[in-house]
Amino acid sequence: MSTARGRFRAAGSVAFSAMKGYSMHKAGGTAAVIAACLLLTACDEDTEADPAPGSAPASQAAFTGAKKITVAGKSVNVSCSGTLEKGKPVVILLHGGGDALDKFAGLQETLGKKNRVCSYDRLGAGGSDQPAGPQTFETTGKVLTGVIGQLAPDSPVVLAGHSLGGLIAARYAPDHQDKVKGLVLMDATSPTQEADLVREIPAGATGDAAGLRTQTLAVFKGESPEKLVVADADVKSAGDIPVEVIKHGQEYLAQLPQYGPGLERAWTEGQVKWLAISTRSKLTIAKTSGHYIYQDQPDVAVREIEDVAARVAG
């Protein structure tokens, strides 16, 4: 196991399973939960350009089930459900760091009853190939463009991303307004997460907080299976596309002794910052949810994604 993969999983694997139940009593467990949230800023993809939208045959774009597609010479694992209808958008689900498309199985099945919906594993995640080297949001975007070009060549797209997937979607949408017509951010990583972390957990911190700080900053530098280098940036405008920002209601970040309340406030502020992405943005609080909103309150995730898709369809 590589150093990067080991560091990511050491903090994340315990946390991802623990977060599902949410109830954490020991300080170490609490730190793991918080790490799972903060470390969802470690990701993505390949560096070559992709087939332009419209290059995929209609029969390929309309498939259902799971398959592998080739994007810039890399094998990318994808899954699609539902019927492709003219004039309606294709919903593209973007998973969080450390996850894969199978995490969306229940959500995708439900959404597929009314919409065409697809998900994919980013390079370094799930069943997709490993990235060739360090990734940036630009290279991540090139792979996403390739995926969209094959899965939704002639349709508008709604991007629905969780955590890191939300950050990727929010960075991508402003530069692709010709294709991305709606956006749903499910507890998306803050646009200023590194600055937030450094401010809230000082360099002199000790114990669980010190480990969390060190591990998370390493992930920001690309020390993760997906090798994405994450840099803070201002929120860019995507015009007036419908945007739904969904934030967790259970304040699990606040459980970290001493520094938790500050991290929780910073996360909330980060969700509010995302509202600047569009003149038609709305914030919803999933009151009984932890970080995995689409699992804790799937009805909320489904409702908001379907609402954005319906508004795009007109």
Automatic annotation (TrEMBL):
SUPFAM superfamilies for this protein: alpha/beta-Hydrolases
Top-level taxon in the UniProt lineage: Bacteria
An individual GO BP term: proteolysis
Gene Ontology, cellular component aspect: membrane
GO molecular function, one term: aminopeptidase activity
Record keywords: Hydrolase
InterPro entries according to UniProt: AB_hydrolase_1, AB_hydrolase_fold, AB_hydrolase_sf, Peptidase_S33
Domain named AB hydrolase-1: residues: 89-197
Signal peptide: none
Pfam families referenced in this protein's UniProt entry, alphabetically: Abhydrolase_1
Family assignment from sequence similarity: Belongs to the peptidase S33 family.
Protein name: Alpha/beta hydrolase fold family protein
Organism from which the protein derives: Amycolatopsis sp. FU40
Gene: apoD1
